[in-house]
Amino acid sequence: MASRIVVVTGASGVGKTSAVTRLAERNLAGVTCAFFDSVGVPPPSEMPPDWQETTTNDWIRRLAGAPADVAVLDGQTRPTFALRAFAEVGVRGSVVVMHCSREVRTARLVARGQPELATDDMHAWAAYRCGQADALGFR
Prior knowledge:
Layout: E1 4-9, H1 16-25, E2 31-35, H2 51-64, E3 70-74, H3 79-89, E4 92-97, H4 102-111, H5 120-135
Parallel strand pairs: 1-3, 1-4, 2-3
Helix pairs in contact: 2-3
């Protein structure tokens, strides 16, 4: 059973999947890594309003039972969803909110073939995430 779960979140293009992938490649004893989107993401037109929160809860429950000391989840979920899931499942958890500049995010999104995500809305979402982290007292 995982004694701690770390959720790595942030806007698209911030580098969270790259960071968690690098961690997974190290094959550290007692550490397991998971990727939120691996369960499949419905298209926006078909996504239920509570999909992100429900899927976050499902992931936290699943990872709480993982045979690891630390489980790391890469996912674009709200920190408050992760914090509520930690409390509901009864697991120790942490949230890391990653951020980068607009220019870096745009370059990453273009390089990975997703320039359509380099929008004002995505940049506003990134700023909102930083505001959430500040409001929650994350360091």
